[in-house]
Design brief:
The protein is an alpha/beta fold. 36% of the residues lie in helices and 17% in strands. Bound molecules: pyridoxal-5'-phosphate.
C-alpha cells in the first residue's frame, strides 16, 4: 500500500466528533499539535477513523520502536496476558522480570555488573535514579542542563529546563538542583565554533558552580541526555560527554544518562551514550523499551544499588506484560532494527540535509540514526527561530499524511518506528519538502 493516502479534509467527520467529546472530558494540559484520531496502525503506517492513511515519523513520541503492533511483540504480550497480568514484582517473583533484568545487565554500557529498578514511565526512571544517587552517595545536589527534559513528576520536573510552561505554576521545586549550559553547538552558549572547541561550556560547572555555590563533594549526580529530545534533538558532542565523565569521576559524582528518548536502538546503537567513550553509572530507560507498553527502568552499577527493602518500589513497576513486550522488543532490536536505524537514519538525514538547498527555512539538520532534528530559522545568519513557521510546517505535513512532531521551540523531530524503510524515508523527505514549500510561499 502506498503511503500516505489522504481521502478527507482533516480532521474528517468521525475524527471531529471524537475530538469534540475529548475536549469536554480530557485534561487540556495535553499538547495536541494536530487533530489525528487513530483507528489502527501497523509498522510505520497509521490509519485514522475516517480511513486516511499516514506515514508515521513520530512513533507515539519515539515509543513504537519495533513499529506499530509488531506481530512478535503482540504475540509475547498475548501469551503473557494469558498466563497472568500482574503480581507486583516488588513483593513476589516472576520469570519475565528477572529475564529482563539479566538482559539489561548484559546490554548496558555500565562497567561491571548492573541491577535494574522497574517503574512505569520515563519520569519514574528518573525519580528512581535521583533517589538512588542521593541514597548511594549521601550527597544532596544534582546538576542538570538547560534545555533538558527529564519528566514531569516533582523530582524530575526540578531537573527539566526545557520550556517555562512545563514549570510555571508548579514551584517551588525540589531543592538542590542546579543547571549548566548544554553543548548546543548550533547555538553555542559561548559563541564558539565546533572545530576549535574543547567543550568549554563545561567550565561553567567547575568555574562557576563549584567556585561560588557548592563544593563538588556535595554533588550526588549529573543527569544528562546524550541527545536532548524535547529540547530540540540537540546532539551533545562526544568530546563534551567524555570531558563530563572525567569531571564527574574526578569528584566521585555519579553520571546518570537519561536515555528515555535516545535509547533502545534509536540512534543506531542500543544507547546513544555508546557513540562516545563513556561508561555511565546509571541509565534511565523508558519509551522504546517495550514498543508501546508502559515500562521505565533505572539501571545502575550493582555496587550502588544497596538500598534496603522498602526504600523504593512501585506496585505496577515491571508489569509482566510490559516485561514480555520488552524482551520481544530487545530481540528484534538486536536482530535487525538497530542496524536498520543506523542505515535508514543515515539515508533520511542525507535526504533532509539536501533539502537545505531548496528551503531557506532549514537552519540545521542533526541527529544520529533515526533520531533526527530539523531546526527552522527565519534567517540563517541571525538564526532567528522560526517558531510559528515550524508549527505551520508540522501541520502542513499532517495534512499531506506525514506524522512528525515538534521538538524545542522551532525544530521538527523525526523519530519514526525503527522499521522505517529507505522508500518510506524518501517519502517523508518529499512530503516535508512540499510542506516547507507551502509555508515558505506564505511568508
Ligand atoms: C529524555 C526524557 N526523559 C524523561 C521523559 C519523561 O518520560 P515520561 O513521559 O514517560 O514520563 C521524557 C519524555 O519525553 C524524555 O524525553
Amino acid at each position: 500500500m502506498t503511503l500516505p493516502d489522504i481521502r478527507t479534509t482533516l480532521p474528517g467527520p468521525k475524527a471531529k466528533a471524537l475530538i469534540a467529546r475529548d475536549g469536554a472530558v480530557v485534561s487540556p494540559s495535553y499538547t495536541r499539535g494536530y487533530p489525528l484520531v487513530i483507528k489502527r496502525a501497523s509498522g510505520a503506517s497509521v490509519e485514522d477513523v475516517d480511513g486516511n492513511m499516514f506515514l508515521d515519523c513520530a512513533a507515539g513520541i519515539a515509543v513504537n520502536s519495533t513499529g506499530h503492533s509488531h506481530p512478535d511483540v503482540v504475540r509475547a504480550i498475548t501469551e503473557q496476558a494469558q498466563r497472568f497480568l500482574h503480581m507486583s514484582g516488588t513483593d513476589f517473583y516472576y520469570d519475565v522480570q528477572v529475564r529482563l533484568a539479566e538482559e539489561l545487565a548484559a546490554l548496558v554500557p555500565i562497567d561491571g555488573s548492573a541491577r535494574s529498578f522497574f517503574g512505569n514511565s520515563g519520569t519514574e526512571a528518573i525519580e528512581a535514579s535521583l533517589k538512588l544517587a542521593r541514597h548511594a552517595t549521601g550527597r544532596p545536589n544534582i546538576i542538570a542542563f538547560f534545555g533538558g527534559f527529564h519528566g514531569r513528576t516533582m523530582g524530575a520536573l526540578a531537573l527539566t529546563a526545557s520550556k517555562p510552561v512545563q514549570r510555571r505554576g508548579f514551584g517551588p521545586f525540589m531543592p538542590g538542583v542546579y543547571h549548566a549550559p548544554f553543548a548546543d553547538c548550533y547555538r553555542c552558549p559561548l559563541g564558539l565554533k565546533p572545530d576549535d572547541c574543547e567543550a568549554e561550556c563545561l567550565d561553567f560547572i567547575e568555574h562557576q558552580l563549584f567556585m561560588h555555590l557548592m563544593t563538588p563533594e556535595e554533588v550526588a549526580a549529573v543527569v544528562i541526555e546524550p541527545i536532548q529530545g524535547e529540547g530540540g534533538y540537540v546532539v551533545a558532542p562526544t568530546q563534551f560527554l567524555e570531558r563530563l565523565r572525567e569531571l564527574t569521576a574526578e569528584h566521585g559524582i555519579l553520571l546518570v544518562v537519561d536515555e528515555v528518548q535516545s535509547g533502545m536502538g534509536r540512534t543506531g546503537k542500543m544507547f546513544a551514550i555508546e557513540h562516545a567513550n563513556v561508561k555511565p553509572d546509571m541509565i534511565a530507560i523508558a519509551k522504546g523499551i517495550a514498543s508501546g507498553m508502559p515500562l521505565g527502568v533505572s539501571v545502575a552499577r550493582a555496587d550502588l544499588m544497596t538500598w534496603p527493602p522498602g526504600a523504593h518500589a512501585s506496585t505496577f513497576g515491571g508489569n509482566p506484560v510490559s516485561c514480555a513486550a520488552a524482551l520481544a522488543t530487545i530481540k528484534l532490536l538486536k536482530e535487525s532494527l538497530i542496524a536498520n536505524a543506523a542505515e535508514v537514519g543515515a539515508h533520511l538525514k542525507e535526504g533532509l540535509t539536501a533539502l537545505m538547498d531548496q528551503h531557506p527555512l532549514i537552519g540545521d539538520v542533526r541527529g544520529r540514526g533515526l533520531m533526527i532534528g530539523v531546526e527552522l530559522v527565519r534567517d540563517r545568519t541571525t538564526k532567528e527561530r522560526a517558531i510559528q513557521e515550524r508549527d505551520a510546517v508540522v501541520n502542513a505535513a499532517f495534512r499531506r499524511g506525514l506524522l512528525v512532531l515538534g521538538a524545542g521551540k522551532n525544530s521538527i523531530r523525526f523519530s519514526p518506528p525503527l522499521v522505517l524503510t529507505r522508500e518510506q524515508a524518501d517519502t517523508a523527505v518529499r512530503v516535508l519538502s512540499e510542506a516547507l514549500t507551502e509555508v515558505e510561499g506564505r511568508t
